[in-house]
Amino acid sequence: MQVLNPNRKIIHIDMDAFYASVEQMDNPLLRGKPVAVGGSENRGVVAAASYEARKFGVRSALSGVLAKKYCPELIFVKPRFDRYKEISNIIRKIFHEYTDLVEPLSLDEAYLDVTKNKKGNPSASLLAQEIRLRILSETGLTASAGISVNKFVAKIASDYNKPNGQKTVSPDEVISFLEDLPIRKFYGVGKVTTEKMYQLGIFTGVDLKSKPLNFLEKNFGKSGTFYFNVVRGIHNSEVKADRITKSVAAEHTFEVNLSSEIFMMEKLESIAIGLEKRLKKYNVAGKTVTLKIKYSDFSQQTRSKTLPYFISDKGLILEIVEELLFQERMKDSVRLLGISLSNLNTEEKKFLVVQLKFAF
């Protein structure tokens, strides 16, 4: 039987409104104002929102139209991913001064395992504080942190004192912390699952803990075992510095909806060129080509084909994409197209990815 391991020291670092904060830092005219990165008042979706915008209910994945409705003073800016990556690289270098066990989840967040660390500091809380000060000093941006015995609890804790704060959940606090936690705050429990749990009388961690394993497996399948363990503080996933890339993708949202497959092929050719560049950058190839289609009503469809050999050339990718595009008629005009390549040859192509370490 698995048990809670009180000896691990994991930190989850999460930058505060990263994309929006970068834009406000680089452009003083945006400071203190509601900012949305990505989208527009007529189209697209918000990629990130400043804290000033979040007060009005603006958040990532919200349509630009709704965002502008919620916050009439909202300022839309185009994302600059090269700039975000530049700053992310600075942050990751800081992480590696403390530990080699750094596992990035995205440009703006990562796990660090500091059970052992390069500073020889037994306190993960002090290390997290020091790292956050280093980030502020070297980038001008704030970060928040969660510190605990595993990745699951650390991830939840990092959201508690945002922005520019941190929360430590020590080994003897883990169980009570999880029992008091609203079920909607459990990492990995989405909106649909939350509603289902409410219907089953599960509103907090203590409610979840009261349910036997067979009950959870019956209602949530394999996820039931996960819920049964994490509410007891059991989550033994390691911070992994080697993460294998599982897919590479490129997509584009159009200002004007497309209604002709001929126009779509023109756009897909451009997308395939971008995808080929990414494949060359990562030095990988794949067997499964997937075409992603998002219609004007925001419904989404994917069509895939798996080959018996690896490909990475845009010409070969486009041949499969064209076949998938004309596989069936479009049901509506199209607002987004994307191409991804998966089933990669990553068994031989493992990428070094930074991981983080901390102490309590």
Automatic annotation (TrEMBL):
Enzyme class comes to transferase
Active-site residues are E109
- Record InterPro entries: DNA/RNA_pol_sf, DNA_pol_Y-fam_lit_finger_sf, DNA_pol_Y-fam_little_finger, DNA_polymerase-Y, DNApol_IV, PolY_HhH_motif, Rev_trsase/Diguanyl_cyclase, UmuC
Manner of cofactor binding, per the entry note: Binds 2 magnesium ions per subunit.
Q: Detail which positions bind Mg(2+).
A: D14, D108
Taken from the UniProt entry, a GO cellular component term is: cytosol
> Boundaries of each UmuC domain copy?
10-190
Q: Which GO terms describe its biological process?
A: DNA repair; DNA-templated DNA replication; error-prone translesion synthesis; SOS response
Q: Which domain of life is it from?
A: Bacteria
MF (Gene Ontology): damaged DNA binding; DNA-directed DNA polymerase activity; magnesium ion binding
For site (Substrate discrimination), what residue positions does UniProt give?
A: Y19
Note the Pfam families from the entry. Answer: IMS (PF00817), IMS_C (PF11799), IMS_HHH (PF11798)
What reaction is this protein's catalytic activity?
A: DNA(n) + a 2'-deoxyribonucleoside 5'-triphosphate = DNA(n+1) + diphosphate
- Is this entry keyworded Ribosomal protein? no
**Record's subcellular location:** Cytoplasm
Quaternary state and partners of this protein?
Monomer.
Function description: Poorly processive, error-prone DNA polymerase involved in untargeted mutagenesis. Copies undamaged DNA at stalled replication forks, which arise in vivo from mismatched or misaligned primer ends. These misaligned primers can be extended by PolIV. Exhibits no 3'-5' exonuclease (proofreading) activity. May be involved in translesional synthesis, in conjunction with the beta clamp from PolIII.
Q: Name the family the entry cites.
A: Belongs to the DNA polymerase type-Y family.
- What's the name of the protein? DNA polymerase IV
Write down the species.
Flavobacterium urumqiense
Q: What is the lineage of its organism?
A: Bacteria, Pseudomonadati, Bacteroidota, Flavobacteriia, Flavobacteriales
